[in-house]
Every structure is written in structure tokens, then in C-alpha cells.
UniProtKB/TrEMBL annotation:
Record carries keyword Transmembrane helix: yes
Keyword tags: Membrane, Transmembrane, Transmembrane helix
Organism: Streptomyces pakalii
Segments traversing the membrane: 6-39
Superkingdom per UniProt: Bacteria
Protein name: Small integral membrane protein
Amino acid sequence: MNGRSIGLLVGVALGFAAYFGGFAAFLLVGSLGAVGWVVGAWLDREGASHLRDLFDRDRR
């Protein structure tokens, strides 16, 4: 997936949250999306292809 597709999916999710859940749901979905983005960027930077690799690295 490229950045445009991911942006489209995030926009649709935020739109549904705002329409059906109101402003509080919009903020919750937006903040959880931001947390997911940060975790994904951190995993990409660390070079872990799977969460299992991340946890195996800590055991060594």
C-alpha cells in the first residue's frame, strides 16, 4: 500500500467515526491512528519485520 491509499483509509475511518460517533469518537479514532503510526514508524526504523523478531531480540 502506498501513502495515498493509507491516507484514504484513515480519512474514511475518521469520517465514519465523526458521522456515527460524534466529535469524541473522531478524536479517539484520530489519536489511536496517530499512536499506530508512531508504533509502525518505530518498528520500521528498528528493522523488525514481525513483532516476534522484536521480542526475540530482547531475550538475547
